Amino acid sequence: MSVLKVENINVYYGSIHAIKGISFEVNQGEIVTLIGANGAGKSTTLNTISGLLHPATGSIEFFDEVLAKVPPHKIVEKGLAQVPEGRRVFAQMTVQENLEMGAFIQNKQSEIDEDIARVYELFPRLKERMKQTAGTLSGGEQQMLAMGRALMSRPKLLMLDEPSMGLAPILVEQIFDIIADLHKRGATILLVEQNAQMALSIASRGYVMETGKIVTTGTGTELLASEAVRKAYLGG
Amino acid sequence: MVFLNFFISGISLGSIYAIIALGYTMVYGIAKMLNFAHGDVIMVGAYVCFYAVARYNLNPFLGVLIAMIVCTFLGMIVERLAYKPLRQAPSLAVLITAIGMSYFLQNTALLLWSSNPKVFPSIIGRGAFKLFDGRLSVSHITALTIIACIVIMIILSLFISKTKMGKAMRACSEDKGAAQLMGINVNATISLTFAIGSGLAAIAGALLCSAYPTLMPTTGALPGIKAFTAAVFGGIGSIPGAFLGGLMLGVIEIFAKAYISSQLSDAVVFAVLIIVLLVKPAGLLGKLTQEKV
Fold first, then answer.
1. For position A59, what pLDDT does the model report?
2. Residue A206: beta bridge partners?
3. Under 8 Å CB-to-CB from B266, ≥6 apart: which residues?
């Protein structure tokens, strides 16, 4: 079943044509990755899906419902959560408060408490630091918090923007283990990454973006084996 | 004892500044703009209260309540009509709009209520508590002002730190984009901030005019500027900063009037502000934040 269907969208930043007619879809239970170099338009694509930017033409459907004109906070209510690039945790609020903000659209306190307990189970490090302000956490911990915060809205599709950015290799592996684990538990994930090797190794399918266009697509294994992708993104 | 009398007057005046400064500082914290029309909302609140009490003989506290309701809506309408369309505009455009809105409110008041000063009836009478065999006299309005300020501070601090909407306001003030990704309606949050600030301005208007009973269309302008100064003094964006800045400004102003010169008191206040900003550019309790690129 199709969760997200992006069809032929064009996005402009003023006069810059950032996304040039791309189409892709994410099906229930998949990890789909968008890979590509810096400036290829990956984050722009996610922000357009989240409603922070608006496509000039084309359509975005989430569970067969068209998302045009739906404001960002309503898109979250429909079950679409984004972990933004650079984590963007609320630095002056505590870990616990950040998670509460993630549950902003939830109204039942008992469910919120359950979800917070589940996030702490998934990320025991966060539990140790629940009363600390998020700004005092390390980069890896902030990434965990940003992911936990997004999970608090009980998303039907989780979009991750460059979760490995700026992290030490050991932490990158840890974050990808967590993503694979979330997938095993049934999450549907759209993953944007520059670290193509890591992303493709856990992805069901992938799309390669270059200057606002999708140039190749295939399963994770196919793309890992592809000569062109190897040359361009995997360092030969 | 005379010193203590001045001190209490200063705290009382400072309490009014603090309540007004809250409106400036909360709006700045969340919308990142200086709402120079805020002082004039005080004036509107005072007029509404004046007419409710002097013309329609309502209970003064009911008058304040009506003024709060009117100002709450006024603040939200001003935000919706004048500032919201400029959300993406350069901050200078917003600033000029705010100054324009300030004059618009003053001139509308001039049209509606004329420039003749009205004598504002104190919302709590003109009585006073006599302490130390009458050597220390604290008027009822002075006591009420200080108590009102403390109660407002406590309620607002609890609201910001404990409630869901309060936390959402803090989230918006840190990062609006991320707040939207949490499902927070940023426009509604900004509107709520204006509503709270303007409602408080109505209380400040009633208290101010009870202590200084001359009410004119320009009544709100100078206290507005001083409260803005208080907000900067304490660290703009910080609620405890507005409280501390307001109280200090009031005390400095009264002391300058009493011990230096009543004509020079405003100059002294601003001189102190400049010195504080030279030493602590972010204000007493403000944090210096690097603008994110």
1. 94
2. A33, A218
3. B226, B253
Instruction: Look at A102 and B186 and tell me if their CB atoms are within 8 Å.
Output: no
Tell me the two tokens of residue B169. 């306001």
Domains of chain A (ranges, CATH numbers): 1-79+158-163+189-236 (3.40.50.300)
For the beta carbon of residue A172, count every other beta carbon within 10 angstroms: 18
DSSP tag of A60: E
- C-alpha span between B3 and A161 (Å, rounded): 62
Q: Which of A164, A151, A136 has the alpha carbon at shortest distance from A79?
A: A151
- For A118-177, write each residue's pLDDT tens digit: 999 999 999 999 999 999 999 999 999 999 999 999 999 999 999 999 899 999 999 999
- Residue B128 — φ and ψ, nearest 5°? -150, 150
Q: Domains of chain B, with CATH numbers?
A: 2-279 (1.10.3470)
Whether pLDDT at A235 is above 70: no
Say if the Cβ atoms of A101 and B171 lie within 8 Å: yes
Token readout for B13 is 């005046």
pLDDT, residue B291, reads 44
Signed CA dihedral, A66, A72, A75, A79: sign only: positive
H or E stretch at A209 = strand A205-210
| Structure-block tokens of residue B276 | 């504080």
Structure tokens at B176: 């609006």
pTM of the model: 0.91
| Percentage of chain B exceeding pLDDT 70 | 98
Annotate B194-258 with three-state secondary structure.
HHHHHHHHHHHHHHHHHHCCEECCCCCHHHHHHHHHHHHHHCCCCHHHHHHHHHHHHHHHHHHHH
pLDDT tens across B160-197, in order?
A: 999 999 999 999 999 999 999 999 999 999 999 999 99
Residue B289 has pLDDT above 70, yes or no: no
In this structure, the number of other CB atoms found within 10 A of the CB of residue A228 comes to: 11
DSSP class of residue A108 equals: -
Residue B178 vs residues A50, A58, A194, B122: alpha-carbon distances, Å: 11, 25, 21, 46
Residues of chain A contacting residue B186, judged by C-beta atoms under 8 Å apart: 73
Nearest-CB residue to B174 (from A76, A77, A91): A91
Contact state of B183 with A76 under an 8 Å Cβ cutoff: yes
Residue A180 pLDDT exceeds 90: yes
